[in-house]
Amino acid sequence: MAFLPFYISRHKQLKIVIIGGGYAGIAALVTFLRYMPDADITIIDPRSHHLKITHLHETFRYPLQDYLIPFPALERRFGCRHIHAALIPEEETLRQWQNDKFLVVNDEVLEFDYILITSGSALAQMDKTENIFDLYDFMTTPGSSLLDSRLDGLENGRQFISVIGGGATGIQFLFEIAHFLRRRKIEAGLRLIHGVDRVLNQFPAGFSTYAQALMSDLNIDFYPNTYYRGQETDSIFLEENETGRKFNLPSAMSLLFLGKKSETIFLANAFGQTMVEHKPLQNIFTAGDCSVYQSFGSDTLTAQSAVRKGKLVARNILRHSGSFKLLEPYLHRDLGYVISLGPADAVGWLALEGNVVGGMPAMMIKELVEAQYDLLLTGIDTYLI
Predict the structure, then answer these.
(1) N or C: more exposed end of the chain, with fewer CB within 10 A?
(2) How many CB atoms are located within 10 Å of the residue 153 CB?
């Protein structure tokens, strides 16, 4: 058992319920077991597996199964328990749980010492027809299979695939699709629709310059300052942001990457304790995309922030259960961010947001970050803070 500063156990086997088995939930699980190996941990999640969602764009090259870790495998590996259910509690429910120290799931009463809510965030959605797809579709069907099934059913001749959304997810899918089409020698055009004037606009301008130059090299059509208004049969409907001009273009399919939206947000204090009516619930913590902390730490909707929050609240739950109850504030700042631009290229920043790197250095950073999380999934924690 590793040593945790400011934590003196009362030699009690804690009963901990983690709601959500994403990045924050798994990071918390591993951290709990690092410092309290005999903790009784239950994960509640509606899926049958932990999904490495940040890798879905790579299913144009690798099997989807490579990014699915079945919860039964995690149960065997970590000695935890998984309950297949969905829980998104409201404030009144949280107060009741805090008072009762139990919750009911699938008609089963679960007593707990602490609850950690890591239910994540939802994906923005629009009405879909048979030739409109979004990230949810890639969670169940590999990218290669999805494109093959759609393009095989179309008439011969040059077809167009439209990607809507030039944020990190949309860009990563865009470049994977471009290289997939080249490998398969598929005669299909590719275009990107984005609502502002440059891609990756939430990042430093160097990201946009680098990515858009590669788009030009790959003959990807770019429609900036353009809104998506729908897709029907073999046409996509668009509207120019500045002029309001509406027009349509040939399009065999539209792939929507409209970003995340947080339908249920849990406000937390600087230590990760859930706040209800401006008061912290002592035994209910939150982490991941569903949480907003009252602290100086990063609240970005990224796997990096989710992992850091999950690890922090696990440490704080253990400290809260101990003798001192001296908790650690969330002060983590993002150390960098890398965006994949196909199988052999990437762009990102390291240490300082203005320190933009591309090509092989960015690829190496990406591989190191992914290897670090893969080790965490085996129970080996290499995160320094």
Answers:
(1) C
(2) 10
User: Which superfamily, per CATH, for 15-121+262-333?
Assistant: FAD/NAD(P)-binding domain (3.50.50.60)
Among residues 231, 25, 280, 44, the alpha carbon closest in space to that of 127 is found at 231
Domain spans, the chain: 15-121+262-333, 125-260, 335-385
List, for residues 346-366, the tens digit of each pLDDT value: 999 988 888 999 999 999 989
Q: Which residue has the tokens 């009784």?
A: 40
| pLDDT at site 155 | 54
8 A C-beta contact, residue 32 and residue 318 = yes
What does the block give as tokens for 299? Answer: 């609240």
Choose among 171, 19, 141: nearest CA to 85. 19
Which pLDDT band, with edges at 50, 70 and 90, does 91 fall under? very high
* CA dist., res. 227 & res. 238, Å (int): 6
CA atoms 308, 314, 320, 324: torsion sign: negative
* 3-state secondary structure at position 125: coil
265-309 tens-digit pLDDT: 999 999 999 999 999 999 999 999 999 999 999 888 889 899 999
The single-letter code of the amino acid at 233 is: T
3-state secondary structure 80-98: CEEEECCCCCCHHHHHHHH
- Report in angstroms the alpha-carbon separations of 269 from 30, 273, 281, 362: 23, 6, 10, 34
What is the value of pTM for the model shown? 0.93
Q: Kindly state the average pLDDT of the residues 14-35.
A: 96
Architecture of domain 125-260: 3-Layer(bba) Sandwich (3.50)
Is residue 29 within 8 Å of residue 5, measured between CB atoms? no
Specify the amino acid at residue 375: L
C-alpha 339/C-alpha 362 separation (Å) is: 8
What gap in Å lies between CA 229 and CA 249, rounded to an integer?
Answer: 12
> Any idea what DSSP says for residue 271?
T
User: Which residues, in sequence order, are CB contacts of 142 under 8 Å at separation 6+?
Assistant: 59, 60, 63, 64
* Least confident interval from 75-79, 162-166, 333-337, 338-342: 333-337
CA 343/CA 73 separation, integer angstroms? 29
Residue 23: CB atoms within 10 Å: 29
What amino acid is encoded at 339 in this protein?
Answer: I
